[in-house]
Amino acid sequence: MPDLKLLALDQEDLEVISAYTQDAVLRVNEMGFAMSDNRFALIMNRYVWEEDDPKSKGLRRRSAMHFDKVTKVKSKGINLDSEDGVLDLLSITFRETDAPSGVVTLSFAGGGTVELMVECLELRLSDLGASWAAKATPHHETN
């Protein structure tokens, strides 16, 4: 399976990356804002949704994601002092405020969010290595 290397510059691109990163898990200390570079980055273990083997519990891969042109970061419902805290990423959305600037929202299980104020949408996702067997397949209730 080839490594993912994706770029999002618009809403449609972002929806694709959000789908690929749904149910990624990361530690609180594996994300941060480099103010001098205007970059927010995180390292995660993403569930490999593109792997289609119904007999297995699936795979996970170590992946890096970073947002450029970030001017400010706010979080809600996340204890940033909890270095061992684990987050489960549910979705990534973008709301335009004054085109092309806007707010990127990373939504986590349990209601926590990280909001990135950006000059424009610019996001990169890259897999970093081999995959490994997942302990379980993520499952979501649908209405």
Sequence-ordered SSE layout with sheet pairings:
Blueprint: E1 5-8, H1 11-21, E2 25-27, E3 31-34, E4 39-47, E5 59-68, E6 70-76, E7 86-98, E8 101-108, E9 113-118, E10 123-133
Percent of residues in helices comes to: under 10%
Mean pLDDT: 93
Radius of gyration: 15 Å
Number of strands: 10
Strand order of the largest sheet: 1-10-5-4-3
User: Uncertain segments of ≥5 residues (pLDDT<50)?
Assistant: none
Tell me the series of helices and strands, N- to C-terminal.
Answer: EHEEEEEEEEE
The main pleated sheet reads as: 5 strands, antiparallel
Kindly give the count of domains: 1
Overall shape: globular
**Class of secondary structure makeup:** mainly beta
Proportion of residues in extended strands: over 45%
Molecular structure report:
With 143 residues, the protein is mostly beta strands. The chain is 8% helix and 52% strand. The protein has one helix spanning 11-21; strands at residues 5-8, 25-27, 31-34, 39-47, 59-68, 70-76, 86-98, 101-108, 113-118, 123-133. The strands form 2 sheets. A 5-stranded antiparallel sheet has the order 1-10-5-4-3, with helices on one face. The model has no long low-confidence stretch (mean pLDDT 93).
